Amino acid sequence: MKLTEVNEPWKHYIVEDFLEDDDFRKLQTFLDTLPDGQPNDRINLFITDKPEVSVLKEKFEDLLSDINFVSKRPYRIEVEYNSVGKDYEYMIHTDGGAKFVSLVLYVSPRKGEGTKIYNPDKTFHSEVKWKTNSGLLFERTNESFHSYKSKFTSRKTINIICLDNNQPKPCGRRR
C-alpha cells in the first residue's frame, strides 16, 4: 500500500493499492452480486457484517495506525457499498457529523472519474484521480468539501468510515 499526504486545500491522503490483488479481485466478485445504480440514481448499502468485507476493516485499522489517527471519542467502523449510475452527480458537500473519517475506495470501472476536492469557498481545487483499488482518505472538517459523479457508466466504490458510537448511521440501507 502506498500512502501520500496532501495538505491543500485541506489535509487528505491518496491511498494506492489498498488491498492485495487477490483480495481486491474477491471484493470485485462479491460486489458484482450487489445491485448497480441505474442512470441518475444511487444505491447505498451497509455491508459491514458481510464476511467478504472483513479484510477491508482490518486494512482500514492498519491505515488509521499508519497516519497516527487517535480518536477522542468511541467509534465503530462501517463498510458501505455505493453504486451510482451513468449521469449521476452528487453535490459538493462535507460528510455528516456522525461520519468523521472516510476512505473512498475506487472499485469499478477500470477508468472513471475520481473525487473532486474543493477549496473552503467551494471553488474547484483538484481531483483524486480514479484508479481501481485506490482512493481518498480524510477526516471530516467543516472545510473538507468534495463531490463525485459518474459520466459514462456505473461507478462502484466502497466507503469505509469511522462513525461516532453515539450516532446512528448517516445514510444508506443495510442489505
What best-fitting shape do the alpha-carbon axes yield?
globular
Number of extended strands: 12
Which radius of gyration do the C-alpha atoms yield?
Answer: 15 Å
Structural class: mainly beta
Provide the CATH architecture.
Sandwich
End-to-end Cα distance: 29 Å
Low-confidence stretches: 171-175
* Total of DSSP H or I helical runs spanning 4+ residues: 2
Number of domains: 1
Output the CATH homologous superfamily.
q2cbj1_9rhob like domain
Quaternary state of the chains: single chain
Per CATH, the class reads Mainly Beta
Strand content: 35-45%
The main pleated sheet reads as: 8 strands, mixed
> How helical, in percent, are the residues?
10-25%
Please name the defining characteristics of this protein.
four-stranded antiparallel β-sheet; 14% helix; 12 strands; Jelly Rolls; 175 residues; eight-stranded mixed β-sheet; mainly beta
